[in-house]
Amino acid sequence: MKSYFKHSLWHFLGFLGFAAVFAAIVMLLWNWLMPHIFALPCINFLQAFGILVLSRILFGTFPSGWMARKEMARYHRHPLYEKWAGMNEKEREEFIKNRHHGFHGYPFGQEHSHSENTSEQ
After folding, report:
1. Nearest one of 114, 52, 107, 15 to 7, comparing CA atoms
2. Could you give the CA distance from residue 9 to residue 11 in angstroms, rounded to a whole number?
3. What's the mean per-residue pLDDT of the chain?
4. Residue 26 domain flag
5. Residues 58 and 6 placed together within one structural domain of the fold
6. How crowded is residue 24: how many other Cβ atoms within 10 Å of its Cβ?
7. For 105, which DSSP code?
8. Rounded Cα gap, residues 117 and 109, in angstroms
9. Whether residue 6 sits in one domain with residue 59
10. What's the pTM value of the predicted model, to 2 decimals?
């Protein structure tokens, strides 16, 4: 339980560090560009962080990660998942056994390999 708490704490601190750096970059870019281009006032760190939160609410563009993958999975299933779902237990065991050798760069095995194309010619 302690290791899970430590792991979660490090992830939370990492997220806070990332958010702080990102907010500082937004603040510096804003203060460098906006007052000179659009005659807008300079902003502080908390205002920059607020702009990031507002952009997340309005546009939904950050942060990417598990939530974005979860939302994407709702609309699009990976073809390999579809293949796995259609396999029985024996086929799955064979697939796992051959997953590191035998693909030759193709995720669905030999049926897409260039060896078939060369034998036809």
Report:
1. 15
2. 5
3. 77
4. yes
5. yes
6. 13
7. T
8. 14
9. yes
10. 0.49
Average pLDDT over residues 32-42: 94
Evaluate if residue 59 carries a pLDDT over 90.
no
* DSSP secondary structure string for all residues of 25-88: HHHHHHHHHHHHHT-PPP--HHHHHHHHHHHHHHH-----SHHHHHHHHHH---HHHHHHHT--
Interatomic CA distance for residues 31 and 28, integer angstroms = 5
- Helices 45-59 and 2-37: crossing angle, nearest 10°? 100
What are 100's two structure tokens? 């590191």
pLDDT of 118 higher than 80:
no
Is the separation of the CB atoms in 82 and 107 below 8 Å? no
> What tokens were used for 76?
């699009």
The token pair that represents 61 in the structure block: 């563009």
What domain range includes position 57? 2-63
Residue type, 52: L
Nearest 5°: the CA angle 7, 10, 13 is: 150
Q: How many domains does the chain have?
A: 2
